[in-house]
């Protein structure tokens, strides 16, 4: 049961081969056994999970089960959960119990999904390795001495090690796709505005977007279908009819299911910077895509190389504003001893935030300050527009864009700890997609020389989620990279 797909779990639950309580217990026991080694969860909510599972069993017995009723899942600890600790990976929120559920959490509860607990993450989602978490680093299930990626590293490691069949995440600059690639699973970041940000602790609001992790594109499609949808409480939520992202997957299998699909390969992504073993796996995957009927065409994203400097102005600027609410008064940690009010703010924030968060607040405050705004923030916004335009030009020549998710496989824990800029550079292929607000997916497509997974990134036009998930699904029907498991999950 541990390795069953979501549709298989659905059938087993509906046929009463297993109850939701039994299924939740199976995963909770696995978390107890394996989490000490992986550190994928910050909070395990056994009681809440079993109560939700009992309710799901009643719903199943009454014949009222939906696609996710009784299915266990993990939430990234950035999503507020009523009555359950929400830390955002920070000491600042180490005692924060939200009085309400994030929109996404509410939708999944209403669907009858069973929340197992809260997944570890980089502090306030700032990082690409999960090492900035106040609760300690997450280990990569494929090799425990390596990072799982970040910032949604706990969610990705949990799914890869089968501590949960599916998990939520968020992606501001790659935080779903990069850990999915490093952990050998599938992850999708939808179009900006598709998933409500209400109750998702804000990092960089114009970039933050909720996303889904699963062992396959099909499992991601099921989870995303339940997460997406208009929410008036998020001013950037898009008012669109709900979509069933699994509908296209039901089309009959054929030898060349991707006939007519044009895949654009950005010249700049294949030029330099990609490790040899990543390139080999990505190119082999493209051969497979062609065998399934797709054609490939070279496209250009001339400004994509400027995505990292633009992002590391815009994201810190927004974070410096968003994180000002953590002042020891309204939320979060308060210093035990202080003089006047300013001293209390200063000490509380100095004690509550870790080094990476402080670095970004400082950079963000600087680029927004009088006299520097035009030189940095405004320029970055201009670059952002050029990058988005590049994608629109490229997407006139193709239906989706493919390339590596990351330049290398997962690095060793500690390897980049003293070199934040090196870590920022590792997000080179994912960040431009957030700046443009486009949907992106990462799927496993092979292994590097070190035995660690390689991810293939697919990027679509706005609201192209169905096309991305369908392409990945057809690839997964013909290959078994997504079915490979780390020894810890055997
Ligand atoms: N939050 C993200 O999407 C991760 C990105 N590496 C960042 O640190 O901003």
Automatic annotation (TrEMBL):
Taxonomic superkingdom: Bacteria
Pfam families per record: Amidase
Enzyme Commission number(s): 6.3.5.7
Membrane-spanning residues: none
GO BP terms: translation
Organism of provenance: Thauera linaloolentis (strain DSM 12138 / JCM 21573 / CCUG 41526 / CIP 105981 / IAM 15112 / NBRC 102519 / 47Lol)
Subunit comment: Heterotrimer of A, B and C subunits.
Residue numbers annotated as active site: 76 (charge relay system), 151 (charge relay system), 175 (acyl-ester intermediate)
Gene label: gatA
SUPFAM superfamilies, per database record: Amidase signature (AS) enzymes
Residue ranges of every copy of the Amidase domain listed in the record: 23-469
One GO location term (cellular component): glutamyl-tRNA(Gln) amidotransferase complex
Record's protein name: Glutamyl-tRNA(Gln) amidotransferase subunit A
Keywords: ATP-binding, Ligase, Nucleotide-binding, Protein biosynthesis, Transferase
Any GO MF annotation of the entry: transferase activity
Family matches, as Gene3D superfamilies: Amidase signature (AS) domain
Catalyzed reactions: L-glutamyl-tRNA(Gln) + L-glutamine + ATP + H2O = L-glutaminyl-tRNA(Gln) + L-glutamate + ADP + phosphate + H(+)
Entry's family note: Belongs to the amidase family. GatA subfamily.
């Amino acid at each position: 049961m541990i390795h069953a797909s979501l549709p298989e779990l659905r059938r087993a639950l509906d046929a009463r081969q297993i109850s939701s309580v039994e299924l939740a217990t199976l995963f909770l026991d696995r978390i107890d056994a394996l989490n000490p080694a992986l550190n994928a969860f910050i909070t395990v909510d056994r009681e809440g999970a079993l109560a939700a599972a009992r309710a799901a069993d009643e719903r199943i017995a009454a014949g009222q089960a939906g696609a996710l009723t009784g299915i266990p899942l993990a939430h990234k600890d950035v999503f507020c959960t009523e009555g359950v600790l929400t830390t955002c990976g920070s000491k600042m929120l180490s005692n924060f119990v939200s009085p309400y559920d994030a929109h996404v959490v509410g939708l999944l509860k209403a669907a009858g999904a069973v929340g197992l607990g809260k997944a570890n993450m980089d502090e306030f989602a700032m990082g690409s390795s999960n090492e900035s978490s106040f609760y300690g680093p997450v280990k990569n299930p494929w090799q425990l001495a390596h990072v799982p990626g970040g910032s949604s590293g706990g969610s990705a490691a949990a799914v890869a090690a089968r501590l949960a069949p599916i998990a939520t995440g968020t992606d501001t600059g790659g935080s779903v796709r990069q850990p999915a690639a490093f952990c050998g699973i599938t992850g999708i970041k939808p179009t900006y505005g598709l998933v409500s940000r209400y109750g998702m602790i804000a990092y960089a609001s114009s970039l933050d977007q909720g996303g889904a992790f699963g062992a396959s594109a099909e499992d991601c499609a099921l989870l995303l279908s339940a997460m997406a949808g208009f929410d008036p409480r998020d001013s950037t939520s898009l008012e669109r009819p709900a979509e069933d992202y699994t509908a296209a997957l039901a089309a009959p299998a054929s030898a060349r299911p991707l006939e007519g699909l044009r895949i654009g390969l950005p010249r700049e992504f294949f030029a330099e910077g990609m490790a040899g073993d990543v390139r080999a796996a990505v190119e082999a995957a493209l051969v497979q895509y062609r065998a399934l009927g797709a054609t490939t065409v070279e496209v250009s994203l001339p400004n994509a190389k400027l995505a990292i400097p633009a992002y590391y102005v815009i994201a810190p600027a927004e974070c410096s504003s968003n994180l000002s609410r953590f002042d020891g008064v309204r939320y979060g940690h308060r210093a035990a001893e202080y003089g006047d009010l300013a001293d209390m703010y200063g000490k509380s924030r100095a004690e509550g935030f870790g080094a990476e968060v402080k670095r970004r607040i400082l950079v963000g405050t600087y680029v927004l300050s009088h006299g520097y705004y035009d030189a940095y923030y405004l320029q970055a916004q201009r670059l952002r527009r050029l990058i988005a335009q590049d994608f629109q030009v490229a997407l006139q020549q193709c239906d989706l864009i493919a390339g590596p998710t990351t330049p290398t496989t997962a690095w060793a824990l500690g390897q980049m700890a003293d070199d934040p800029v090196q870590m920022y550079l590792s997000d080179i292929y994912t960040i431009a997609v957030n700046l443009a607000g486009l949907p992106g997916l990462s799927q496993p497509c092979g292994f590097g020389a070190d035995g660690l997974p390689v991810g293939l990134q697919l990027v679509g036009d706005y609201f192209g989620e169905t096309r991305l998930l369908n392409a990945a699904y057809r690839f997964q029907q013909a290959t078994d990279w997504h079915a490979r498991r780390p020894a810890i999950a055997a």
